[in-house]
Specification:
The protein folds into two domains: 48 residues, Arc Repressor Mutant, subunit A (Orthogonal Bundle), CATH 1.10.10; 127 residues, Tetracycline Repressor, domain 2 (Orthogonal Bundle), CATH 1.10.357. The chain is built from ten helices and no strands. Helix 4 runs antiparallel to helix 6, helix 4 packs parallel to helix 7 and helix 6 packs antiparallel against helix 7. The radius of gyration is 18 Å and the shape is elongated. The N and C termini lie far apart (56 Å).
């Protein structure tokens, strides 16, 4: 069982690293320790390398994103929940791209493999909710949706929402009925 102070240290380290890397991808591990208010030993005990820290940031983001689906579906209609979730996903993909220089090709492959299943499961949950209430067309496939939205992070930020609207319009069961 992990002590609460150890969990708090890891949370502070991840938050500090996420912010530091977003501002400057070359931030040193010692700078991250200072920003998190922990000693270098604590940082390296939890994250023995820069790559381990970046992978932990990715995994934390995937967990946050995939874990948000039930709450979104409780408060929003499925198409709106899918729009909000996808916007968060695109933001995370942009951040991941910015951190990418810190990862080796093997680490890139590892994080992609680790995140694919949970992301597809989250998309499936969102699409299934829309299929059930009749707002999303029955032939919508999670893998297709992920592939289409994968292009959004490369788009200019001011184009993300208009492009996402086009994708979501294509999912609408109301527009697809023959």
């Amino acid at each position: 069982m992990v002590r609460s102070d150890a969990r708090a240290n890891r949370a502070r380290i991840l938050a500090a690293a996420r912010q530091a890397f977003a501002e400057d991808g070359d931030t040193s591990m010692n700078q991250i320790a200072q920003l998190a208010g922990v000693g270098p030993g604590t940082l390296y005990r939890n994250y023995p390398s820069r790559e381990a820290l970046v992978l932990a940031i990715y995994q934390d983001e995937v967990d946050r994103l995939t874990g948000s689906v039930p709450d979104l579906l409780t408060t929003l209609a499925p198409p709106e929940a899918l729009r909000r979730w996808t916007t968060d996903l695109v933001d995370a993909m942009r951040q991941k791209h910015g951190l990418g220089d810190a990862l080796s090709p093997i680490a890139h492959k590892t994080i992609s493999e680790q995140s694919y299943g949970p992301v597809i499961a989250a998309i499936t949950q969102l699409l299934d909710a829309g299929k059930t209430d009749g707002s999303i067309r029955a032939d919508a496939e999670p893998g297709d949706f992920l592939q289409l939205t994968g292009a959004l992070w490369r788009a200019a930020p001011d184009r993300t929402q208009p492009m996402l609207a086009l994708i979501l319009d294509g999912l609408s069961a109301h527009r697809h009925r023959r």
